[in-house]
Amino acid sequence: MLLSITLALSVSGCTDSGLHGGELPGDKYVALFEMVEESYNVTEGRMFAPYTAVPPPFFDYDGSYGLARNYTPVNDSLKILYGKFYFTFSPDRNRGRFDVRGIYSYPDVAERNLSITGTDASGSVYMRYYDQNITLKVGDRWTSPAIATWTETYDFNTTITSFVNGTTPEIIPVHVYYTINFVTTFSVENKGMFNKSDIK
């Protein structure tokens, strides 16, 4: 007896699927937006300046602002317009980088162990993360597990300025010590399916 088992997995609003629902029309493309966030947790000691989040940059994924034509060549082979915002929170400064590229063939390695394997006529995007198949429908967002990257220890002397009675400055020496663990997460959002003619 042949036992066939279909296992459906729900992953952050996405469904595991191995079937493509027809081909993406040649006159359309799908827009994906990825956020890569490298942040940290204090595991020992105390730091005085916790990080603050910064909003992502503007991504003209549908061509309505006339910017999309500058991102990547638009031709019959374009399947996905892929925007990626990489942001690092660190104790000394915050750094950000935004890139947009076109995906013209599959498979395409989008991020750490995340590959894009296809699209279909409805605008769904098929991805694979390690051994997990993911279907990202229009409007869906998939988020990776947290990935531990490295650990840093800060140990130094500095000064802070305190104001006595709100007017008289007083310089106070302080010793700063803390250990932080950096972690990385990334998310991919399907912004929808659009006409190539809108960005030519």
Explain the overall architecture.
The protein has 200 residues and is an all-beta fold. The protein has one domain. It is built from no helices and twelve strands. Strands 3, 4, 5, 10, 11 and 12 form a six-stranded mixed sheet that branches. A four-stranded antiparallel sheet has the order 6-7-8-9, with no helix packed on it. Strand 7 and strand 8 form a beta hairpin.
Set out the fold topology:
Blueprint: E1 10-11, E2 14-15, E3 28-45, E4 80-89, E5 94-103, E6 108-111, E7 114-119, E8 125-129, E9 132-136, E10 141-143, E11 147-164, E12 168-195
Parallel strand pairs: 3-4
Antiparallel strand pairs: 1-2, 3-12, 4-5, 6-7, 7-8, 8-9, 10-12, 11-12
Distance between the amino and carboxyl termini: 56 Å
Structural category is: mainly beta
The whole-angstrom Rg is: 23 Å
Shape: elongated
The count of β-strands is 12
Helix content: under 10%
Q: Whole-number average pLDDT?
A: 83
- Low-pLDDT segments: 1-18
Largest sheet: 6 strands, mixed
Write the H/E string, N to C. Answer: EEEEEEEEEEEE
